[in-house]
Design goal:
single chain, alpha+beta, 8-stranded antiparallel sheet, 5 helices
């Protein structure tokens, strides 16, 4: 017969393990010799690994969902107050024409004819409702707009080559510049709820005076 393979020759005979043999610790009798501290440490290690695995895998239900914006699109264009009626009618000259808006609350705002403004146009979801001009909401002091109204508009033209959407509102025509992938969703005659806001811009003279005052304050400030 040939030589016995090394792995067969080195394997201890099957039977009761001798005292002091590592296999003895794996027998029921050997379990008693395992220190309790080692079992506690093993449990702590398993708990730490499980916690680390959970931290690395955030459950889908706890992930923050992207917030939905109030507007589909919103943009601003420069304008000028062409007329301000004490009765609460303001006419604003814009690049797309004149906007005539009812604004009785402007009596409490220091606006005058010739003031520069920003006209903000926001396209709202189809479920939004217009705000009646006859019952304007109270102006929020934290809102930079001196006038804000929701109106129902109608699409009068869609120019895909220039990326321009023209809307007709009770106040006048409004132009909105849109990318082609958004513009192609609109058709002539569609009803589109929008929000118009008018933000008063400081005149160049006021900006210059404010800058001069800040400069003087920095030079001759309080000691």
């Amino acid at each position: 017969m040939g030589d016995i393979p090394h792995w067969q020759a080195s394997e201890p005979p099957i039977g009761k393990p001798e005292k002091g043999c590592p296999r003895a610790a794996m027998t029921p009798a050997g379990w008693k010799s395992i220190p309790l501290l080692s079992l506690a440490a093993l449990g702590a290690l398993v708990a730490a690994v499980s916690a680390a695995d959970l931290n690395g895998r955030t459950p889908k239900s706890s992930r923050p969902e992207p917030s939905n914006s109030l507007f589909i699109v919103r943009q601003q264009a420069e304008g000028e107050i062409a007329k301000l009626d004490p009765a609460g009618i303001v006419v604003i000259k814009t690049r797309s024409g004149r906007l005539t808006m009812a604004a009785p609350q402007l009596s409490a705002v220091s606006a005058a004819q010739g003031d520069r403004v920003l006209v903000e146009v926001g396209i709202l979801p189809a479920t939004s409702r217009p705000t009646p001009a006859s019952s304007p909401q109270a102006r929020d002091r934290s809102d930079p707009a001196i006038l804000r109204q929701r109106l129902q508009s109608q699409v009068i033209s869609v120019d895909l080559s220039k990326g321009v959407l023209m809307l007709q509102t009770p106040s006048g025509r409004v132009r909105v510049d849109l990318p082609s992938n958004v513009l192609e969703q609109f058709r002539k005659g569609d009803l589109v709820p929008i929000e118009l806001a008018v933000i008063l811009q400081p005149s160049p003279e006021k900006v210059e005076r404010a800058g001069l005052a800040a400069l003087l304050l920095s030079i001759f400030g309080k000691k």
